[in-house]
Design a protein that fits this description.
By secondary structure, this protein is of the alpha+beta class. It has 3 helices and 3 strands. A 3-stranded antiparallel β-sheet has the order 1-2-3. The structure holds zinc ion (ZN).
Length: 75
């Protein structure tokens, strides 16, 4: 997993979402404090699959099932 630091409150953001796309993985990070409004400071991190070595770990986390979609053959 990557560490994502907020430029507003200077705290590390927490992964709150994970999506698998055909060529990349998309992680959503948010501040978990009273300082930042997540709607303003939310960070979307896109990682090309060939560089992403955290997918396996991400799939074991509870939030994965929340956003998981059935694999559809890409055509
Ligand atoms: Zn923040």
């Amino acid at each position: 997993m990557m560490s994502v630091k907020c430029g507003n409150c200077d705290s590390y953001q927490t992964v709150v979402g994970y999506r698998k796309l055909p060529e990349k993985n998309v992680y959503t990070y948010e501040c978990e404090n009273e300082i930042c409004d997540p709607n303003v400071t939310r960070t979307i991190v896109e990682v090309p699959k060939e560089f992403d070595n955290s997918t396996k770990r991400a799939e074991e986390l509870p939030y994965y099932t929340a956003e998981a979609e059935p694999d559809t053959p890409g055509e």
